[in-house]
Amino acid sequence: MQGVWRRVVYVGLYEAIAIVLAGAGFMLMSDAGALHAGGLSALCSAVAVAWNVVFNHAFERWESRQAVRGRSVRRRVAHAIGFEGGLAAILVPVIAWWLDVSLWQSLAMDLSLLLFFLVYTFVFNWAFDRVFGLPRSAQPA
């Protein structure tokens, strides 16, 4: 599977599984029931997807104006910190409001999600490539 169809399937599966798992995590970290935690998880997923589009557009505009081209480790680290920091700035107040917890509790939940998603993304990408094959860009010449 290649091209746009691959990306659509990837995002759909990634987010659907993430919503279920993050919803379970919110249930474990709070007193929320399945419906309430699942709703928050779906909202967080929608925010993350929207933030991804907005942040990457802004980052790429900034990047295009830089004298030095390419993506060094330093630039990749800046990208990751900018994305995750911006997402946390959006989600921490949302989580606190939705679950009626303090901002500190919400920040702890958000950090837990960040650690979870580091592992989840790695495992999901590995499994996705095993099931659907590598994209052309990663296939041997």
Summarize the structure.
With 141 residues, the protein is mainly α.
How are the SSEs ordered, and which strands pair?
Blueprint: H1 3-29, H2 34-64, H3 73-99, H4 103-132
Largest sheet: none
Based on secondary structure, the structural category is mainly alpha
The overall pLDDT, averaged over residues, is 91
Shape field: globular
Percentage of β-strand residues: under 5%
Number of continuous helical runs: 4
Q: CA-to-CA gap between the ends?
A: 17 Å
* Share of helical residues: over 70%
H and E string: HHHH
Radius of gyration computed on alpha carbons? 17 Å
Our count of domains comes out at 1
Beta strand count:
0
**In terms of per-residue confidence, which ranges show pLDDT below 50 for 5 or more consecutive residues?**
none
Features:
141 residues; 0% strand; 4 helices; 82% helix; globular
Task: Describe the structure in your own words.
82% of the residues lie in helices and 0% in strands. Helix 2 packs antiparallel against helix 3 and helix 3 crosses helix 4. The protein has one domain. It contains four helices and no strands.
